Amino acid sequence: MSAFVEDLLPYLATTYDVIIGHSVGGAVTMSLFPFLPSTKETTVILVDPIVEVPDAALVTNTNMFLEEIENPKSADEWMAENPSWSRRDCMLRAHGISMCTGAVVKDLIQVGIRA
């Protein structure tokens, strides 16, 4: 988490009113709290943050992400499986998976277990 927080600290010097964290980003956002200026009101929105994950869910989610990385889907395949998603969401999902490796997922899971 500290590596993510360090990468984001320069952005706290810019103008913002809202910080949104989704999934792992929710935990990162919560880690930013000590660095937020006390003189400025900031709205924080956490969407499905990873705060505490039961062991069974951790194993299931890890295996799901590793499977997605090993067998990536195209944006069209994501669209077919998730018709309520926007085309942009499907493109971002396909692109995000293409940029990830199994080692990254395993490292993030280990960091979460130690936290």
Write out the strand line-up for the largest beta sheet, numbering strands in chain order: 1-2
Which structural class matches the secondary elements?
A: mainly alpha
Helix content: 55-70%
User: Could you say which overall geometry the principal axes of the C-alpha atoms support?
Assistant: globular
Oligomer: single chain
The total beta strand count reads 2
Instruction: Give the total of domains.
Output: 2
- Major sheet description: 2 strands, parallel
**Amount of beta strand:** 5-15%
Distance between the ends = 9 Å
Provide the low-confidence segments as ranges. Answer: none
* Average pLDDT figure: 85
Q: What is the element string, with H for helices and E for strands?
A: HEHEHHHH
Rg, Å, rounded: 16 Å
Number of helices: 6
